[in-house]
User: Which sequence fits this backbone?
């Protein structure tokens, strides 16, 4: 039969206590919403654009077929890959977002591009 020494038991208790106080890095264990990250949605709303969240990864700015559509992909590289593979025809790639202008005005598109580009590196 195995017998614990008091030093070994104390070590186990100390290690257990340490591991219970370790904090997880921010963002771990929860999904980030690309529409609201970096204030993208708030930016569009602040410019009084009629924006609607669609599903879990898209925004519709104004009604279809005239309003712009923004679809977010999982990573920034995925947007470029979709464009190269011909799966994003008519879309502008901004980071992980595909911006389909449809028939939105140039002034609206300028605001949309600026808001969607928030937080994009490079």
Assistant:
């Amino acid at each position: 039969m195995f017998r614990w020494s008091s030093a070994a038991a104390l070590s186990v208790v100390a290690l257990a206590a340490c591991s219970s106080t370790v904090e997880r890095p921010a963002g771990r264990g929860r999904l980030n919403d690309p529409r609201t990250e970096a204030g993208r949605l708030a930016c569009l709303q602040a410019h009084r654009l009629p924006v609607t969240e669609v599903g879990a990864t898209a925004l519709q700015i104004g009604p279809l077929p005239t309003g712009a559509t923004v679809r977010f992909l999982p990573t920034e590289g995925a947007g470029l890959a979709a464009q190269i593979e011909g799966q994003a025809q008519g879309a502008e790639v901004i980071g992980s977002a595909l911006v389909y202008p449809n028939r939105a005005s140039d002034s609206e598109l300028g605001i949309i591009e600026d808001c969607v580009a928030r937080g994009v590196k490079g």
About this structure: The beta strands are 51-54, 58-61, 68-72, 92-94, 97-100. The mean pLDDT is 82. The two ends are 62 Å apart (CA to CA).
